[in-house]
Hints:
Blueprint: H1 2-25, H2 29-49, H3 52-71, H4 76-83, H5 88-96, H6 101-104, H7 109-117, H8 124-142, H9 146-157, H10 164-181, H11 189-198, H12 202-231, H13 235-246, H14 253-281, H15 285-303, H16 307-321, H17 326-345, H18 347-361, H19 367-380, H20 385-396, H21 405-422, H22 427-436, H23 440-470
Helix pairs in contact: 1-2, 1-5, 2-4, 2-17, 3-17, 4-17, 5-15, 7-14, 8-9, 8-10, 8-12, 9-10, 9-22, 10-12, 10-21, 10-22, 11-20, 11-21, 12-21, 12-23, 14-15, 15-16, 17-20, 19-20, 19-21, 20-21, 21-23
Amino acid sequence: MRQFASIGFTIAIIIYAVMHYVTYINATEIGSIILGITGVVILIFSLAILSIRALAVPLFLFFIALSIQLFTMNSFASLLLYGVSEMSNLITLLLIVPIISWILREERYIDAIMQVAQRSLNTSKKFYFGIMIVNQVISYFLLFGAIPMMYQFINDFLKDKTSEAWEYFKGTALLRSFALTTLWVISIPSFAFAVDHLDASLGWTIIQGFLISLGGIFLSVLFLSFKEKSYQVDFTLGIQEEMTGRLAHALDAKYAKRLVIEFAVLFLSLFSTIFIIHIIMGWGLLAIIPPIIVVWTFGYFILKKRPKRFFAEMKTYIKKDVGQKSQQFSLLLAAGMLIYAVNNSGVGNYLIDGLFYVEETIPFVNFLTIVPFMAIILGFLGLGPLTVIVLVAGILENVNLVYPAELVVLAMTSGSVISVILSPVVLPVIILSSTNKLSIVKNGIIFNWSYAIAFYILVQGYIQVMWYFMH
């Protein structure tokens, strides 16, 4: 039964993605109805696939949406039919983005990057900084899948370093750097959704987010120096010992440099193509990223003269991987219904009015100060950064704010950064804990609470100064 439901789910999600583009290009009533029916079918198959525990959050969101819809005397049928269509752009993006990872399996790009850079990464702070930068670039391709992949790589590099101090070194570098990608990386769905739905300037939002991300990395390096003293461990000595051992198993120097150049070209070509088409054509990010990724990935395999590998990867992805995304997609469908109910009923305006009431009541507090806590609180309730940004941006989309969209996006995504590094119930912390075998509380709250406070102060300092000069 579960296997049949998994096959049905896979077929339905592919039809859903196709119908998203059909209705995007040529919006018709019949197309919208087919899209909505397909979304409902996806939810039905998800009920057969997932355990009660996995369904807890989607069902929680659905019942809140249903309660709002019924309390405000709105139609249950419209909630189902149109609510499940609310997230079609994001679900299509999440379906397509993982195929970028096929490229990283073709060549030893990460090994080459670390080998070429290792002479510059011969101290603990430089190595830590380098790992955070590389992990951000890899996250561009793998999203949170970069965490276990990069952890395995670093763990192999530092294979004899397994104390709590070294796990702090490895874990915080990966978790914090991934969290910081939500501030600026185009392929991160929450960032793309926020920019798209709040109509923020893509170029300025990326530049601003990248600079804050860089500030967050330097802040993390500063915290590492304090921890190195408190743990009384010489990280630099340990790293230099491992580097000496790895030189004997290095890639050919010319081959490694060629792979690094090739990877840089790949990164820049994907980034620039998305950016240029968005600027020239004026299309939304969520609409242009999936087809560009498909064409770009296929082009890579053609240039490498490996088209059969592309189709083999596609076959494996459709047969095995898509069916495993049922929890993620059902969560987004439920979130879409909640956004539909909130916006359709006017409840969203009351929520925003409540935030402005807090702004007026508490001195030295404004809307941009409060917004990050929405992401943080919802993160501790089990909602990941993507779901949080989807809910908050989906509500704010229909509200006339006096604040620049770029600052609102930064405030929201800074909250998701803190949520990712602290919350013991969001996916990145859980993935890291399953990889390094430390508790989710230690990997999250214990290792990162002081850094989270400092990061919030850093971001708010920038936001409030910018807002002061803008108005």
